[in-house]
Amino acid sequence: MSAVMELLLLLPLVLLALEAPLCHGACVEVDSDTEAVINDGFKLGCIYCKMRGEVDATATVKWSFKGSGDSDFSDLYIYEDERDEIIDPRFYERLHWNGSKHTRDLQDGSIYILNVTYNDTGTYKCKFSRTLKYSNYAYEKTKEKNITINVVARLTRGMASILSEVMMYVSIIGLQFWLLVEMIYCYRKISAAGEEALRESAEEYLAIASESKDNCAGAQVAE
């Protein structure tokens, strides 16, 4: 029975291993953080998933910035054909590409700011320009996202972040409880099946023994 229990304990790991290849390369659009800490690094997230994975495509990502004292957006950064260019001199040597690599079919257009300053407070605009290449034509699609960043001396956690973490732990505990219930159910089912098999074997043995006894008694009477 211990061998059965070991197999049941390994079952969740086996299922995760089987699901891992299916999840490889998956794209999920998530919102960027909006609170940066002074003198630290900060990732500006911008993801635009391609719904038709089988269609070839190329994409360009362009970032613009409007500081807290600016009246309009100004060009900040552009990434195209696996090459980048920092346009705004305020970000020279402080900006790096943090998105999709080794491909022109971009889905992650995130950038990373080094040594954040209070002057980096403001609104950043991420613009994806994607060209889907079909057999007979090309289709252009664009998407824009605005991200307002606040630079602080110390990171403070918002209620949304706390609730997200709580929900994550609740989900993990719920999944583990479900797996435990499944294991107990399977163990009881296997145990009951084993007991039933033993009971049937015992009844069959008693029936054979009784039949043999009757046969022996009949033979003695005939003699």
Write the layout of secondary structure elements.
Blueprint: H1 2-23, E1 35-37, E2 42-44, E3 56-67, E4 74-80, E5 83-86, E6 95-97, E7 111-113, E8 122-133, E9 138-152, H2 159-222
Parallel strand pairs: 1-9
Antiparallel strand pairs: 2-7, 3-4, 3-8, 4-5, 6-7, 8-9
Helix pairs in contact: 1-2
What does this structure look like?
This protein has 223 residues and is an alpha+beta fold. It is 39% helix and 28% strand. It has 2 helices and 9 strands, in the order αβββββββββα. It has a 6-stranded mixed sheet, with no helix packed on it. A 3-stranded antiparallel sheet has the order 2-7-6, with no helix packed on it. β8 and β9 form a beta hairpin. α1 packs across α2. The N terminus is likely disordered.
